[in-house]
UniProtKB/TrEMBL annotation, chain A:
<feature type="transmembrane region" description="Helical">
    <location>
        <begin position="116"/>
        <end position="138"/>
    </location>
</feature>
<keyword id="KW-1278">Translocase</keyword>
<keyword id="KW-1133">Transmembrane helix</keyword>
<keyword id="KW-0830">Ubiquinone</keyword>
<feature type="transmembrane region" description="Helical">
    <location>
        <begin position="12"/>
        <end position="35"/>
    </location>
</feature>
<dbReference type="InterPro" id="IPR018086">
    <property type="entry name" value="NADH_UbQ_OxRdtase_su1_CS"/>
</dbReference>
<comment type="similarity">
    <text>Belongs to the complex I subunit 1 family.</text>
</comment>
<dbReference type="GO" id="GO:0009060">
    <property type="term" value="P:aerobic respiration"/>
</dbReference>
<dbReference type="InterPro" id="IPR001694">
    <property type="entry name" value="NADH_UbQ_OxRdtase_su1/FPO"/>
</dbReference>
TrEMBL record, chain B:
<comment type="function">
    <text>NDH-1 shuttles electrons from NADH, via FMN and iron-sulfur (Fe-S) centers, to quinones in the respiratory chain. Couples the redox reaction to proton translocation (for every two electrons transferred, four hydrogen ions are translocated across the cytoplasmic membrane), and thus conserves the redox energy in a proton gradient.</text>
</comment>
<dbReference type="InterPro" id="IPR001457">
    <property type="entry name" value="NADH_UbQ/plastoQ_OxRdtase_su6"/>
</dbReference>
<keyword id="KW-1003">Cell membrane</keyword>
<feature type="transmembrane region" description="Helical">
    <location>
        <begin position="32"/>
        <end position="52"/>
    </location>
</feature>
<dbReference type="GO" id="GO:0005886">
    <property type="term" value="C:plasma membrane"/>
</dbReference>
<keyword id="KW-0830">Ubiquinone</keyword>
<protein>
    <recommendedName>
        <fullName>NADH-quinone oxidoreductase subunit J</fullName>
        <ecNumber>7.1.1.-</ecNumber>
    </recommendedName>
</protein>
<keyword id="KW-0472">Membrane</keyword>
<feature type="transmembrane region" description="Helical">
    <location>
        <begin position="143"/>
        <end position="166"/>
    </location>
</feature>
Length: 341, 199
């Protein structure tokens, strides 16, 4: 019994160590994603982007972080003080919690849980509470409008997202994220799920852009219509937490798309030279590519109008995913099964 | 010393009961809704402690992730008079207590008389037991008909809810997306040559 107790405490300590190993690089990644965004969009718009702090602007995120930390957090008159301060935390914590289930390599994860996919879907939906509560507690009309928009948008796109994941389940026959990646092994690029599940791949990634409130679906912020939406009233670190949550969610959606549709840590071609490169490098390269697509989309498309977002979610994505679920279901009962699995 | 899971059970249960009380007594309806979210969270944690991770995660996904978001949405939109709400509290208290006591008695009766109360402690859960798969197999074989009937009832409810809110008003301007997409430049722009004809 005493041994068991010691083991339990040791397991908790080991989990804490693993959490630090994941979260510290994640926060660094978030910091440099902000720089990458400004640089990439800058070049796309024929500008230079930040280039003053450090070598070619490489210390810009650090400067931004220091600036935000020393700014005053202003609480608006008649705002609900407790919820106003709790909202950024409500947004930030789920953005970190989802990382518990992400597999970084065969058997490498904070928790290799059986229902990993379900966990990820459940926790990722919680971030919206931060936005809604922020909008309500700010005692500001713009913030409240942003919160309302965010709530309606999240509910619409979460359904399409869930259906897209059903397709992955049907092929992989498991909710365990590591096993989903392993089910895509074999023929390299052509055996990954993006090919048989191409509509789901698109729907999932676009819903991911919508769920993270990124352009062109950023109506919750909509700086040209409702100033900055749910976070108009926030400043300093409280604002920074929303910002961190948004970028951590971007990295998470890219990484999960990689895991579900782009073969996770497998090399695109099964040759000794490419398979010799460690899996984590492939995983991060694919994630970085999808993050680039996030930035590319932002620099390319104008913001959707609100009713267009709703139409895309309810009338386009949901029927498309339901139809493709039926197609995959029928295909699995035919000789195609051998190719799909 | 108590096992870790027992300590966790008491912590989650205590928070659950405390938050459930606050749902009823909170003065601000938005707070009440957020306390209800906390209740669901702790209920999910209890499910997961039991090894029923599927039920726990579905509870979070469906209730916390979707239902409560809509609740919060509605509660925030309402202009609720707090004073009038408080007035009603005491007059409804006897009815509420009666229903609560009835519920507890019924549960107690079920546990004392049926075999449910005498189930031997479940066998140790094998490591890596995949209860999502087990639940799915049971639902789609042994309980197929009840499951399908439940699904049809839900479908009817969905259609009924949509039918209740759907109304066609005359004179509203809606877009015809198909017609919009089919438009070509020559449909919208007509070039007229205004130069004086050469004689």
């Amino acid at each position: 019994m005493h041994d068991f107790q010691n083991m339990a405490w040791w397991a908790i300590l080991w989990s804490l160590i693993k959490i630090v190993i994941v979260v510290v690089p994640l926060l660094l990644g978030v910091a440099y994603l902000t720089l990458a965004e400004r640089k990439v969009i800058g070049y796309m718009q024929v500008r230079l982007g930040p280039n003053r702090v450090g070598f070619k602007g490489s210390l810009q995120p650090i400067a931004d972080a220091i600036k935000l930390m020393f700014k005053e957090v202003i609480i608006p008159t008649n705002a609900n003080r407790f919820l106003f301060l709790a909202a950024p935390v409500l947004a930030f914590v789920p953005a970190l919690l989802v990382w518990a289930a992400i597999p970084f390599g065969p058997g490498v994860a904070i928790s290799n849980m059986n229902a990993g996919l379900l966990y990820v879907l459940a926790i990722a939906g919680l971030g919206v509470y931060g936005i809604i509560v922020a909008g309500w507690a700010s005692n500001s009309k713009y913030a409240f409008l942003g919160a309302m928009r965010a709530a309606a948008q999240l509910v619409a796109y979460e359904i399409a997202m869930g259906f897209a994941l059903v397709g992955v389940l049907m092929l992989a026959q498991t909710l365990n994220l590591a096993k989903i990646v392993e089910a895509q092994a074999g023929g390299g690029f052509w055996s990954w799920y993006w090919l048989p599940l191409f509509p789901f791949f698109l729907v999932y990634f676009i819903s991911g852009v919508a769920e993270t409130n990124r352009a062109p679906f950023d109506v919750a912020e909509g700086e040209s219509e409702i100033v900055a939406g749910f976070h108009v009233e926030y400043s300093g670190m409280a604002f920074a937490l929303f910002f961190l949550a948004e970028y951590a969610n971007m990295i998470f959606v890219s990484l999960l798309t990689t895991v579900l549709f782009l073969g996770g840590w497998y090399a695109p071609i099964n040759t000794p030279l490419l398979t010799w490169i460690p899996g984590i490098v492939w995983l991060l390269l694919k994630t970085a590519f999808l993050l680039y697509v996030f930035l590319w989309i932002r620099a390319t498309f104008p913001r959707y109008r609100y009713d267009q977002i709703m139409r895309l979610g309810w009338k386009v994505f949901i029927p498309v995913t339901i139809a493709w679920i039926v197609i995959i279901g029928v295909a699995l009962e035919t000789p195609l099964r051998a190719i799909l699995r | 010393m108590l096992p870790v899971t027992t300590i966790l059970f008491y912590i989650f249960s205590a928070i659950l009961l405390g938050a459930a009380t606050l749902v009823v007594t909170a003065r601000n309806p938005v707070y009440a809704t957020l306390y209800l979210v906390l209740v669901f969270f702790n209920a999910a944690a209890l499910f997961i402690l039991l090894g029923a991770e599927f039920l726990g995660l579905i509870l979070i996904l469906v209730y916390v992730g979707a239902v409560m978001v809509l609740f919060l949405f509605v509660v925030m939109m309402l202009d609720i008079n707090l004073a009038r709400l408080k007035e009603g509290f005491l007059s409804y208290l006897p009815l509420g207590l009666a229903i609560a006591i009835l519920g507890v008695l019924e549960l107690a009766a079920v546990f004392w008389t049926s075999p449910l109360g005498h189930v031997p402690a479940p066998a140790a859960i094998p490591a890596n037991a995949d209860n999502t798969r087990v639940l799915g197999v049971l639902l789609y074989t042994q309980y197929l008909y009840p499951f399908e009937i439940a699904a049809v009832i839900l479908l009817v409810a969905i259609i009924a809810a949509i039918a209740l809110t759907l109304r066609r008003r005359a004179g509203t301007k809606t877009q015809n997306i198909g017609a919009q997409m089919a438009v070509r430049a020559k449909d919208r722009m007509h070039l007229v040559d205004l130069r004086e004809p050469k004689s």
